[in-house]
Amino acid sequence: MKQSKPKSYDRRLTELLDADFMARLDGLDVLSRKILQGKIQGERRSKRRGQSVEFADHRRYVVGDDLRFVDWNIYGRLEQLFLKLFLEEQDLTVYIVIDSSGSMDFGEPAKGFFIKKLAAALGYVSLVNNNRVSLSSFADGITGDLSHMRGRSYLPQMAEFLLTCRDVGPTFFEKSCRQRASGRFGSGVMIVLSDFLFKDGYQSGLRRLISDRFDLYLIQVLSPQEMEPDLTGELKLVDIEDGDAAEITVSAALLKYYKRTLASYCNELKQFCTQRGAAYVLANSADKVEHLVLNYLRRIGLLR
Questions:
Q1: Do 76 and 169 have their domain in common?
Q2: Domain range enclosing 63
Q3: 2-29: pLDDT as tens digits
Q4: Fewest beta carbons within 10 Å, which of 30, 93, 208, 258?
């Protein structure tokens, strides 16, 4: 039998996800912690009660209800009318928003490539389950958008989008969130991937995304060099995004203060999210994306 050559888009996808990882992703799906109604009937079992084939519960009959859904077995026993309620299959939209600013190019391994691999994994799970997927990037506002994807046939476009997305320029998070929130789209699961180290802060931007429309997840990705810096002596630090420079003397006391400040910042971001019903995850770009997806994201309920 003549073996067919792999298609170029297959090779593009495997730059982000290897075959073994994709095989394990095939058994997962995205969950919503909220009752979110899609625009069309889909291949998803939601908490919303409707008229599918899977029984959910009973409620008392009221005048005007459809008699086709009366449970006549209960009527025969109790001489009271009850309706059968069923779980309805609902369409789910997954919005994946990735940071493509210059700071994503920092670290070893780089934060940006970790984020792209993670976005590819989440997009893969969503597309193979026929969820609707919208993927966008931001820096100084929304810099790229790939919307209304549905089904495996969009995997090549997703991979191409992620691999050609350049990590450059400054970040204006509030502007990016304002543009993203003002777009014409419905409810769904929104996942934002970034280091969240913004000079303009994260609060005003996130307030634009936190609403009943979205089941919001924030995944903060930091490099090992940011979490455990190995620096000493006289240094000149240059901001990778806007070129701002500062000369400092790195000492043990300064490193201790830095780590304490970073931990406090991350904890404040986590509290900001949890107090408003959003989920927060901290990830290290040196860790394996596979472990984060297959273990931790399943444990917190984003995936099943």
A1: no
A2: 42-90
A3: 444 445 556 689 999 999 999 999 999 9
A4: 258
